[in-house]
Amino acid sequence: MNSTLNLQSHTYRIIRSILIAGLLLLPLLASAEQQPKILSDDAQIYLVTCSPGQALYERYGHTALMVIDKEQDISDVYNYGVCGFNTSRFYWRFVRGETFYQLGKEDARWFINSYTYGKRVVNVQQLHLSSEQKDAIYRALITNYYPENRTYLYNFVFDNCATRPYHLLMDALAGDTVTSTYEGAEGMTYREFIRHYTPKGSWGDFGINLVFGPKADKPMHGEQRLFLPEELMNYIGAATFIDGTLVVDNSYTHPFEIEHIPWYKTWYFGLALLFIALVLLSAYDRHRGARTRWADYTLYAIYILLLVLVTFLTFFSIHPLVGYGPYLLILPSIHLCARIIYLWR
After folding, report:
1. pLDDT-derived band at 284, boundaries 50, 70, 90
2. What angle do CA 184, 185, 187 make, to 5 degrees?
3. DSSP per residue over 107-175, as a string?
4. Three-class SS of residue 74?
């Protein structure tokens, strides 16, 4: 009996010792799981927003993240807008919506100078982050820059150079509630919002209306509007933490300037010229009693190509907003009206 009690007591002491040792080791294990710091305490992370350029694909600006750590000689800009035009079947993939972009890494001075040389304003916002949050963002950028991770399927609206830095920042701020007083494009449709950055009346404006379908006329709410760089810049600029602290410590920002084009470069004027030319051609055909068939056939070929393009975008492309739209009928209507105007006289 005594031997049994002694055995139980001995077993109890062993279990208690193991539990106590485990409790004492928990802080050590927790500290061992913490990753070492990779940025110094004085390191800074900036949201960089570049103003629009001249090319159509530059009209919407550009977003990047800049990491500056003078103590460790780190001065890098990471941007998710590197596109490889040498990709096999690039244009086919682009029309299909299968465009792959990459995360690029550049020296900060080279990046800023290249945009400044192109007469584009580089807006900079210094983010108010803790050392742990800065490390989290930098680790994520390093990981995403690995060759096996840096390529992603680009989507102009839902996954692009602006949405990726935004979600990366929100992930680093996990647990910290962020709100913004900036309303911006809240309630606007995708079509209205995108056209805002295209010169009014330009051929690019016409193309947007031509290929964008009914899905582009849905209103945007909340984070849906942060896919364009200026909107993200303004949103973060007016953002605060739950205690009222601003997310941005210091900033150098300017509103985007949207180019205005002269009337003679608008698509309205171009189509008006086409209408006048077709009317004159119709009058000439009536006068000589014959049709200028090559003109009609050329226009028919253009209509068919446009119809094929829009049909393909509607049913076979994975672009989220494209599809059949009423603008497709503008050119045929002009042709038809010009050709029958003299038949009515």
Report:
1. confident
2. 125
3. EHHHHHHHHHHTT--EEEEEE---HHHHHHHHHHHHHHTSTTTSEEE-BTTTBSTTHHHHHHHHHHTTT
4. strand
Q: Are 195 and 258 in contact (CB under 8 A)?
A: no
How is residue 309 written in tokens? 């393009």
Averaged pLDDT, 51-75: 92
Sign of CA dihedral 18, 21, 23, 29: negative
Q: How many residues does the chain have?
A: 345
pLDDT digits (tens, 9 = 90+) for 319-343: 888 877 777 777 778 777 777 766 6
- Residue 232 pLDDT more than 50? yes
Residue partners of 116: CB distance under 8 A and separation at least 6: 122
Contact 49, 230 (CB under 8 A): yes
Q: At what angle do helices 293-315 and 203-211 cross, to 10 degrees?
A: 60
Residue with tokens 């002269």: 262
CB 201 within 8 A of CB 267: yes
Residue 258: predicted pLDDT: 85
Cα–Cα distance for residue pair 69/137, rounded to 1 Å: 13
pLDDT exceeding 90 applies to what percent of the chain? 46
- pLDDT tens for residues 80-92? 998 865 566 666 6
What percent of the chain is modeled with pLDDT above 70? 84
3-class DSSP assignment, residue 257: coil
Tokens 């209205």 map to which residue? 192
